[in-house]
Design a protein that fits this description.
The chain has about 400 residues and is α/β, with parallel strands linked by helices. It is built from 13 helices and 10 strands.
């Protein structure tokens, strides 16, 4: 299998040869041999890398979630590293000054298959900026680690767009980053001079292990394929005061809080008989963020059937269950700003509307299953952009 960056160098050199290029990348921008895209371009690409761009977590992928990153100079070459995740909304989009010294922008980012993951939206804002500056953008495609077949969850209602969802795609979108940017350019009227370089040899039914690539954390808390598989559902825990395991070795694989009862929560979750997943008992002490240095009682999620597992359904059901068991006993929604938005609760931004939060008291598992489905029109829109 060839990644998009490898196919660019091998088969599409005319897109970058002789150009002063910018590169939007991060620590997971590596090939099957572990060589970073910056090194591949410098040694084999025929372009001069005139500027680097870092998404959320930074070019070096060391910053925590929602932590502002300063622009700086790249130590090895003194090339500027422009941060696209600063202290406000304006910092998320390249400025004309950042693009002034380049002829084209190359993007090579590892997405993980969930609408909340911000790298696709950084790319979208780069497309807007490049369209305005009349600069071409080249997006090198990479695998969707959790596969390209299964789709789950709704789109985004008008007024609920944010940096965890700027365009209406399903929560578990089942697409590659190249397919998503092509969809946005075609159907969002962006008018970007976009070239998507597809992979060679990737199939939609492939999981990460089959792609033969090393796992390099694409963000500090995305530490395994299992975490990526759970993320479309367990990222919802961020919208509550329950710890999603940040500050432990297994973020998104565990969830808990001091006010919970492990046995009660485990038994109630397992009684739902959700497809492909069960809960096992655990306790943990986060070293940072929610409940730092406090003993949290909770569960560890065990995926027994990857193809049958529906992470978004499991995440909605888990939040609903915690609300039912611990409302008035410690459970709270997150109300502080989330991805620079101050007028919408985090749960509404993640689910794409207020429907789940407003109806939670009267929900049943059957109605949650309805909320977890993807509307037909989104399925059809997605199908129109598939490259593989």
């Amino acid at each position: 299998m060839l990644l998009g960056i490898e196919a660019l160098i091998k088969d599409r050199p005319e897109l970058i040869e002789g150009k002063r290029a910018g590169l939007l990348a991060h620590a997971a921008s590596v090939d099957a041999a572990g060589r970073h895209t910056l090194d591949r371009l410098a040694n084999d690409g025929g372009a001069t890398i005139a500027a680097l761009f870092g998404p959320e977590h930074g070019f070096a992928t060391k910053a925590e979630d929602m932590e502002a990153v300063e622009s700086h100079a790249y130590a090895a070459s003194n090339v500027p590293v422009h941060s696209l995740y600063g202290k406000d909304l304006d910092s998320l989009k390249p400025t004309p000054e950042m693009l002034k010294g380049i002829d084209a922008l190359i993007v090579d980012l590892q997405d993980i298959g969930s609408r909340y993951y911000t790298y696709i939206w950084t790319t979208a804002l780069c497309m807007e900026a490049c369209a305005e500056a009349k600069k071409p953008i080249v997006v090198c495609d990479r695998p969707n680690p959790i596969g390209g077949e299964l789709v789950e969850g709704p789109g985004i209602d008008e007024g609920y767009q944010s940096f965890v969802g700027l365009f209406p795609i399903p929560v578990r979108h089942g697409m590659t980053i190249g397919e998503i940017v092509q969809l946005m350019n075609d159907q969002g009227g962006m008018g970007c001079d976009l070239s998507v370089v597809p992979m060679q040899g990737w199939r939609r039914d492939m999981r990460w292990a089959e792609a033969g690539l090393p796992w390099v954390n694409p963000s500090p808390n995305m530490r395994s394929y299992t975490a990526a598989l759970l993320y479309p559902g367990m990222c919802l825990v961020e919208a509550t005061n329950i710890s999603e395991g940040r500050g432990t070795d297994t973020p998104f694989e565990v969830a808990g809080a001091p006010y919970m009862d492990t046995d009660e929560l485990m038994e109630a979750f397992n009684a739902l008989s959700l497809p492909g997943v069960s809960a096992a008992p655990t306790s943990f002490i986060p070293t940072r963020q929610k409940w730092a240095n406090r003993l949290c009682h909770g569960v560890r999620f065990v995926v027994s059937d990857e193809k049958g597992f529906r992470p978004y359904l499991a995440g909605l059901a888990f939040i609903w269950l915690c609300h039912r068991l611990y409302r008035g006993k410690g459970f709270e929604w997150r109300n502080d700003p989330y991805e620079f938005v101050t007028n919408r609760p985090a749960i509404d931004l993640l689910t794409g509307s207020s429907a789940f939060r407003e109806a939670i008291d009267g929900l049943s598992l059957d109605t949650i299953e309805v909320l977890a489905k993807t509307p037909y029109e989104l399925i059809e829109m997605r199908r129109s952009a598939l490259l593989y």
